[in-house]
Amino acid sequence: MSTNKELLRKGVKYLTGALPLMFLGPTLIYNAFQNQHTNWHYLVLGIGIAACLSSMVLIFVGLKIIMKGIFND
What is the pLDDT of residues 24-35, one digit of tens each? Predict the structure, then answer.
Protein backbone atom coordinates (compact mmCIF):
# COMPACT_ATOMS: atom_id res chain seq x y z
CA MET A 1 0.00 0.00 0.00
CA SER A 2 1.74 3.14 -1.21
CA THR A 3 0.69 6.74 -0.87
CA ASN A 4 -0.28 8.95 -3.78
CA LYS A 5 2.29 11.75 -3.64
CA GLU A 6 0.44 13.94 -6.12
CA LEU A 7 -2.63 14.04 -3.88
CA LEU A 8 -0.45 14.73 -0.85
CA ARG A 9 1.13 17.72 -2.59
CA LYS A 10 -2.26 19.01 -3.64
CA GLY A 11 -3.56 18.72 -0.06
CA VAL A 12 -0.54 20.52 1.36
CA LYS A 13 -1.08 23.34 -1.15
CA TYR A 14 -4.60 23.79 0.17
CA LEU A 15 -3.32 23.86 3.75
CA THR A 16 -0.63 26.42 2.92
CA GLY A 17 -3.30 28.56 1.28
CA ALA A 18 -5.38 28.41 4.44
CA LEU A 19 -2.51 29.40 6.73
CA PRO A 20 -2.44 33.15 5.93
CA LEU A 21 -6.24 33.31 6.07
CA MET A 22 -6.20 31.87 9.59
CA PHE A 23 -4.28 34.94 10.75
CA LEU A 24 -5.81 37.51 8.41
CA GLY A 25 -9.45 36.78 9.27
CA PRO A 26 -9.32 37.34 13.04
CA THR A 27 -7.08 40.36 12.54
CA LEU A 28 -9.63 41.97 10.24
CA ILE A 29 -12.48 41.14 12.61
CA TYR A 30 -10.59 42.70 15.52
CA ASN A 31 -9.81 45.77 13.42
CA ALA A 32 -13.46 46.12 12.45
CA PHE A 33 -14.61 46.08 16.06
CA GLN A 34 -11.95 48.59 17.10
CA ASN A 35 -12.97 51.05 14.37
CA GLN A 36 -16.74 51.05 14.72
CA HIS A 37 -16.89 54.82 14.31
CA THR A 38 -15.99 54.62 10.60
CA ASN A 39 -18.29 53.83 7.71
CA TRP A 40 -16.08 50.95 6.54
CA HIS A 41 -16.78 48.90 9.67
CA TYR A 42 -19.26 46.48 8.08
CA LEU A 43 -17.19 45.94 4.94
CA VAL A 44 -14.06 45.06 6.92
CA LEU A 45 -16.10 42.82 9.21
CA GLY A 46 -17.60 40.99 6.22
CA ILE A 47 -14.19 40.48 4.65
CA GLY A 48 -12.82 39.14 7.94
CA ILE A 49 -15.70 36.70 8.36
CA ALA A 50 -15.31 35.57 4.74
CA ALA A 51 -11.57 35.02 5.30
CA CYS A 52 -12.27 32.89 8.39
CA LEU A 53 -14.90 30.81 6.61
CA SER A 54 -12.73 30.28 3.54
CA SER A 55 -9.86 29.23 5.78
CA MET A 56 -12.05 26.58 7.39
CA VAL A 57 -13.20 25.33 3.99
CA LEU A 58 -9.64 25.14 2.66
CA ILE A 59 -8.49 23.22 5.74
CA PHE A 60 -11.36 20.74 5.40
CA VAL A 61 -10.75 20.19 1.68
CA GLY A 62 -6.98 19.93 2.18
CA LEU A 63 -7.27 17.33 4.93
CA LYS A 64 -9.81 15.39 2.89
CA ILE A 65 -7.42 15.28 -0.09
CA ILE A 66 -4.50 14.26 2.14
CA MET A 67 -6.54 11.40 3.62
CA LYS A 68 -7.48 10.33 0.11
CA GLY A 69 -3.79 10.32 -0.84
CA ILE A 70 -2.70 8.35 2.20
CA PHE A 71 -5.37 5.66 2.11
CA ASN A 72 -5.84 5.49 -1.70
CA ASP A 73 -9.60 5.95 -1.72
Answer: 999 999 999 999
Q: Is 28 in contact with 44 (CB distance < 8 Å)?
A: yes
Beta strands in the chain (DSSP E): none
Q: What mean pLDDT is predicted for residues 43-64?
A: 97
- CB of 69 closer than 8 Å to CB of 8: yes
Dihedral of the alpha carbons of 61, 67, 72, 73, in degrees to the nearest 10: -60
The model's confidence at residue 72, banded by pLDDT at 50, 70 and 90, is confident
Cα(50)–Cα(46) distance, integer angstroms: 6
